Please model this.
Amino acid sequence: EVQVVESGGGLVQAGGSLRLSCKVSGFTVDDYGIGWFRQPPGKEREEVSCESTSGRPNYVDSVKGRFTASEDKAKNTAYLQMNGLKPEDTAVYYCAADYLCGDAQPGLWGQGTLVTVSS
Model:
């Protein structure tokens, strides 16, 4: 079955860190671009990071310098390391496959994992 499954969300204090995982099944993690998105409570979903055609990740300005996207081929898993978390980072975070920077929509969405940052 082709799917991506997120994990690693939770409650963290402001300034803390979390690492989200995106386990890929049915294909290998570097076959397709992996993007990260989030949807804050009551707001629209937004792109957090996307993979450029060169393979390097790009980030939305609000997370630059704090978040890092990476992939582990051996574990067939993508990660989003989030440091210096702020209350405004509170959201449901999604990984998505078959997505490169500039694409209209990913081909495959995960179910999401909730990140709550307390002040």
Remarks:
- The mean pLDDT is 96.
